[in-house]
Amino acid sequence: MRTAKQKLSPVSWKEVTVNGGFWQEIQKINSTVTIPLQYIRMEERGGIEALKLNWKPGDSNKPHHFWDSDIGKWIEAAAYSLAKHSDPELEKKIDDLVDLIEAGQQEDGYFNTFYNLVDPGKRWTNLYYMHELYCAGHLAEGAVAYYLATGKKKLLDIICRFMDHIDSRFGPQTGKVHGYCGHPEIELALVKMYQVTGEERYLRLSKFFIDERGQQPYYFELESLSRGVNVEVKADRPRHLKHYLCCQGPFAQYQSHLPVREQDAPVGHAVRAMYLYAGMADVAAETGDHTLLDACEVLWKRLTEKQLYITGGIGQSSDGERFTFDYDLPNEITYNETCASIGLVFWAHRLLQFNGDGKYADVMERALYNGIMSGVNLEGDRFFYANYLSVYPDRFKYGSTLITERMAPTRQGWFEVACCPPNLARLVASIGQYMYSTSTDGIYVHLYNDNESKLDLIDNQVILTQKTEYPWDGHIGITVNPENDAEFMIALRRPGWCQNAEIKVNNAVIDVEVRKGYWIVNRLWKQGDVIEIILDMPVQRIETHPSVRTNTAKVALQRGPIVYCFEEIDNAKDLNDVSLVSDADISARYEEDLLGGVVTLETKGRRRDTSTWDGQLYQPVKSEKMDITIKAVPYFAWANRGPGEMVVWVKQEE
Amino acid sequence: MRTAKQKLSPVSWKEVTVNGGFWQEIQKINSTVTIPLQYIRMEERGGIEALKLNWKPGDSNKPHHFWDSDIGKWIEAAAYSLAKHSDPELEKKIDDLVDLIEAGQQEDGYFNTFYNLVDPGKRWTNLYYMHELYCAGHLAEGAVAYYLATGKKKLLDIICRFMDHIDSRFGPQTGKVHGYCGHPEIELALVKMYQVTGEERYLRLSKFFIDERGQQPYYFELESLSRGVNVEVKADRPRHLKHYLCCQGPFAQYQSHLPVREQDAPVGHAVRAMYLYAGMADVAAETGDHTLLDACEVLWKRLTEKQLYITGGIGQSSDGERFTFDYDLPNEITYNETCASIGLVFWAHRLLQFNGDGKYADVMERALYNGIMSGVNLEGDRFFYANYLSVYPDRFKYGSTLITERMAPTRQGWFEVACCPPNLARLVASIGQYMYSTSTDGIYVHLYNDNESKLDLIDNQVILTQKTEYPWDGHIGITVNPENDAEFMIALRRPGWCQNAEIKVNNAVIDVEVRKGYWIVNRLWKQGDVIEIILDMPVQRIETHPSVRTNTAKVALQRGPIVYCFEEIDNAKDLNDVSLVSDADISARYEEDLLGGVVTLETKGRRRDTSTWDGQLYQPVKSEKMDITIKAVPYFAWANRGPGEMVVWVKQEE
């Protein structure tokens, strides 16, 4: 019987020290600006005060049922940061939060600020909507990270008691509740708890939540009927939320329309989907259940071949924050929640460990450098929830859309539901963990960035040191320092975008086999061996599958992993009328003083001259085009120079 | 001082008998299918029963506050039809309705089925939303039409009493209410009442409603505060309707943000805007108030140069059924309510009478042959509310939009708010009135279609007979039969789309001056003189102003006044990947058996081959294109062969 064991082992964020280059800059801002700011925002909005149990019915600023998850994610981000940069003040803040959580924990282990304060008698009555297990999961991830970062076990112990309480209530056994959370998260968190504590009941509980999901009769239906409503048919909320009635079936909005192994397309809320699929991959890996991995692979193929933006964005619809249909990738009216792309990285990273297939790393890289990092400004203090691929600001002033902060075309200081900023912070702070894996054969190098890392092989330890200007330059140097000289494999990722490259070891070009997107270098490695990877990094004009109706006759520019866009500030208004000339050279230039230092692109383009139109709105085709120079900047860095038009996809003359 | 007198006089629908060609076919279906069906629908939905005052609080099927307007529009349409084709059964139906209206009229002249039955104490307390004056206006239009069609005065008398009641309540005098309706309509209806009764107080009241609109303090604010709510700031309706808070200012959704003479852009609800502007033009014409005409001209220019679809559609946003911003003309996510284009025809027709400028007739023709007739199927029994210029059906199955009947991409049998079908019916039944005007100089011919018409000049009467296959063919024959041979002008419209043409009189080509889009033929006309107009009608590739971001690099095909579209049934899926070849011939062919007989177009196109993509969603540009034959059909006739993709704008290779 097939089992789904991971052939690769992820390398912990603890072992990878980012010490230069692209990600170091971002981590520095994350640690010095973003993480401190997020604590302040939680204070301002009342999340910390609520944790102190100071809120009483009738008070303003009612605790939000998501707030515990913000706390959990913030602790997680802060823990990753702390592990690399000692910061007693930050550590004190976390310890104080842990004390508050301890004080708020109920006798039986239960913890939830909203239910503790706002609706004490109602706990566990609305798994569909109220996020109790989701919040528990995020607190668990925070607890695991803080324990691993500092060795302090108090929060982990609190969460163990909480998880034990959950385990006593939910499970397949008679007498236990056969429920699961409207927002997946607990599943992957329980696997982390299992990994760090060795308690198998956490793994079993995670597997239960996954196995139970989508079984009939639907738990959500039974639960809601017991509250006197039917959430699907007569939704207990305003009409404008009825779109939660997802067309793919009852409860599809929450991926609960079918048992997970029967799901063959990404549906419903995109962040929920990613967290669920990541949990499925975790349980597959830990239990060897190949049916879960098979389901992941079907879902992966459908998602990445039919509903993935070039930026790594996913989840096209702002209504319901969800997937729509195959090849539907609108640029202007879309959603692409930052959290969804982050969830995609979590899932991709887990799938990558099974067989070391570079296609997963390609998507991970696509999301990291583009649709995720677009989620925060260069200063680290403003955030996008929605990541559009085309913006015309008037649409948000005079358009038809009911605009909320989460749909704004300029980055916002915070959000009513503030999931994205702390999610970004924890991802950036732990970016090192995505760079390497090990296996019985040796080492996998997934991402390229300056770092020094300690990689444990079966009977050896290797210090790898990377030095590179990637993603701006394709030259990567890796120094290999094994504790003992030994023969092992180093698998170097050949990015999906790369069409020509050279590999050298100790200055000699070597001929290497490519296997699933990795150059496999097997040799006797000695202290101080130097690998050089020289990736050709020409500007590529990318086309989209013909069924994607919004990108036909258009191209996007990509160089290395970086997807580019055109902004009004560089190219004037009416960007949609700009076309590239198909045979024109495109120059790439590093501009140190622009947008924190980026490679920009310039090429010849053409556009019509509006001055000749004289009040006509339509005319028989006759207008001449003017030659212009157009400039592109990395998509992730857009909207850092004031509001304006932006497009990723631009017409190309044939 | 300038005054705004109309130099032209519209010719009544009574004098124009459509006796063949395009519009006869449509009128036949309108009379035999659409008008009878609409009566049945009103019966089914309860509108007739409500008029019988049979509804009691607690009963189901609560009367809708719009229902009286449906009755009024239906009577109007039926009256026009009746005048041309005697139909005792239909006349009996109208007379019965009139009796019911009489029975429901209050002592003081007030009439409104909703307030009579549902909320008797609350009349005139919510002009903002409850459409009492709007319903009154439609009943008045019905009354005028029925009186003119049959000479029967009962309904007109009823409405006179109602209008007198309104006049006693609203007006500039102290003690009267300085209010106006949330939905303009009463203004133009009062002018019709004035024209048919000669009672100047109706004209004065219309002028009052127009002058008062948008003055501060805002009537709607005062009114709503007196009901204990603030409609703008704390809307008294669900959150999803808060988009009625239009960004152009308080009450801009209802064109009440500014005095009408200060409004310089079409804003808010498109149908309301058109009815208001038509009323403004009426009052300008009847009072000579040039400031109202000036305002109309500013609004006209802004609308037609910046927010008019090629089909004559207007009002881009389904949220609020309203205008958005200049050059925002999305094809797929739009609205273009059928009623809004009908209102545009009303307004254009009025402005045309001032100076006989063909630009108004061009827009009238554009809307009539395209964005209005798309509102009904060929059988006359299903209707579009929204008229998209691009449809991908999956968007409505899996997309983000909360779809209601009014937004459906296939024509519907009826609607909750059923304004469009009877509006279409009354327009089609009265189409003759848009064909001619007279002036002190002679006759204006605005539209080309078979008809025989009696046109009264100052001291002569002329029978004109048109014979043509227009809009499929550009050859038009007009026989002129003056009662007395005389010298006068016949102004023949030179359509805006026409670039070459020939005019003959009695077989001899004549050289004629063009003035404001009309060929001016001055001569001594004798019985039996024959005018021939030969309009070159090549297929034109139309481009849009460069600021219209959704149409760049695309063309639409137009032949004569007919705008074409491409349907999936003729061209397979993925229409957006089809491109025209810029120098390929486009053949035009009349197909008698297709879509009731239409000219279709065929040309060479190209598209990418999806079979070579092999699971890729993105790739560096390399795909080859295939040559294909593509076929276009008239836009108005789309969606008559089952659901499928449709596009008007198609890429063109350069």
Protein described:
Chains A, B: Residues 442-537 form the Non-reducing end beta-L-arabinofuranosidase-like GH127 middle domain. Chains A, B: InterPro entries: 6-hairpin_glycosidase_sf, Beta-AFase-like, Beta-AFase-like_GH127_C, Beta-AFase-like_GH127_cat, Beta-AFase-like_GH127_middle. Chains A, B: Keywords: Hydrolase. Chains A, B: Pfam families: Beta-AFase-like_GH127_cat, Glyco_hydro127C, Glyco_hydro127M. Two copies of one chain form a homodimer. Chain A has 654 residues and is an alpha+beta fold. Chain A folds into three domains: 19-434, Glycosyltransferase; 436-535, Immunoglobulin-like (Sandwich), CATH 2.60.40; 539-653, no CATH class. Chain A has 18 helices and 24 strands. A seven-stranded antiparallel beta sheet of chain A has the order 2-6-7-8-14-10-11, with no helix packed on it. In chain A, strands 1-4-5-9-13-12 form a six-stranded mixed beta sheet, with helices on one face. In chain A, strands 16-17-22-20-18-24 form a six-stranded mixed β-barrel. In chain A, a hairpin with a 2-residue loop joins strand 4 and strand 5. The longest helix of chain A has 25 residues, at 21-45. In chain A, 54% of the residues are buried. Chains A and B meet through helix 13, helix 16, strand 15, strand 21 and strand 24 of A and helix 13, helix 16, strand 15, strand 21 and strand 24 of B. Strand 21 (618-620) of chain A pairs antiparallel with strand 15 of chain B.
